[in-house]
Design a protein that fits this description.
By secondary structure, this protein is an all-alpha fold. The protein has 4 helices and no strands. The protein has one domain.
Length: about 120
């Protein structure tokens, strides 16, 4: 084996240990939440959080207006508005949890890929 091959092998082993350190162990809930704000779709996450805050504020405003309403027609309209806003907030939160789940599954797939690569390296050498 030449000198360059040994250097490449040492570099790959160092990278392999770095990857192993990154993917070993489970993440805490806060790490999983912050991971959603990293990556390619972080702008969509920020948009969803912003919309969720707006819909929550609109639902609070709607509840206040619901209690101030005098007519049955106003009660029904404000009640439907509040229900719509709560549904929108719920859907945003479900989407957020699905993103966390997606990241968790990708992490597990990468862990399995790393183990398969290690096994292939052991079988070859």
């Amino acid at each position: 084996m030449s000198n360059i091959d040994a250097k490449i092998k040492r570099a790959l082993e160092a990278t392999d240990t770095d990857l192993a350190d990154e993917f070993d162990g489970d993440q805490s809930m806060t790490e999983m939440v912050f991971d959603v704000f990293r990556g390619t779709q972080k702008w969509l996450t920020f948009l969803a959080i912003f919309c969720s805050i707006v819909f929550m504020a609109a639902s609070v405003f709607g509840i206040i207006q619901l209690f101030k309403a005098q007519e049955l027609h106003e009660h029904i309209l404000w009640g439907l508005g509040v229900m719509f806003c709560f549904s929108a907030v719920s859907l945003m939160k479900i989407w957020f949890w699905m993103q966390m789940n997606r990241n968790s599954i990708l992490r597990e797939i990468k862990r399995v890929e790393l183990q398969v690569a290690r096994l292939a390296a052991k079988l070859q050498g």
